Structures are given as structure tokens and as C-alpha cells.
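Need C-alpha cells for this chain, all 157 residues.
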Amino acid sequence: MTDARFEDGDESPIRLLARTAEDVSVIAALTQDAVFPITEMTWARPRRRFALLLNRFRWEDRETALREKRPYERVQSLLTVETVTAVRTQGIDRGQKDMVLSLLDLRYDGPPDGPGQLTLTLAGDGAIELTVEVPDVALRDTTRPYRAVSGKAPDHG
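Here are the C-alpha cells for all 157 residues:
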């Protein structure tokens, strides 16, 4: 059996669960450069769930779009984290309701069976740190892909 590759992806919506640091790195690769309005971030404390509604770049489709000379795409996706006991932020002003944030990385630090920290690194020195009992992250596409407004793939030079 071989691991899945980006090239194996098709038009089916992504539905992934991450329960280990290695699993989280796969979701991190798929959500790199996702953007979201600050208003689409929520922590349901009683349910111990943190959620983000992201507009993620479809990295799994990048090579196909390039080869077929068609526009790059984004898709709206829901990123949820379960077993969250605390949330801390840095460099984010929740009062700026029109602010759009860009997710650069997602990383789990801690023992495999928890507890640990899940850190969402944002562009512009922002960060969200979630204390979790165990790594339990889900990524689910919620819309059909749409043309990326910029028409370009994200590039970090």
C-alpha cells in the first residue's frame, strides 16, 4: 500500500481527520495560505470545540490547473479542533471585524496521547494557540471549488 499523493486528488470534497502530529502536518499542507475573516473564528467553550471557516487554496489541484492552463481554485472549508481547553492569541485584534487573516502553518506539540498545544501560525506575526487534551482536528470542504480571485498560486518567494 502506498501513501496518497496530491496528484491522486480529484474533484471530490476533502474530509480528513488528524489524530497525530504527522496527521496534523497533512492538514497543515492543505490549509497553508488559507484566508478567513476574523469573524469566522469561534471557540465553543462548553463543547470544547474551536472552528474556522476558511477559504483555502486547493494545493491538491495546483499541478493539474497549471498543466491544463486553467485558473487556480479555492474552496470554503471548515477546520475544527476538538478537546480544546484553552485558547490564546497573539497579534490579533478581535475588535477589527473587517480583518482577514492568512493561515501559514498548523502544528501540534505534545505527547501523542496529549495534552499538548496546537498552534496556528498566521501571516503578520499572529498566532492562535489551542491547548488540547489530544490532537483531534478535522478538515472538511463545504462548497464547490471556485476560481481564486487573484488568479495566482500563493508564493512565499
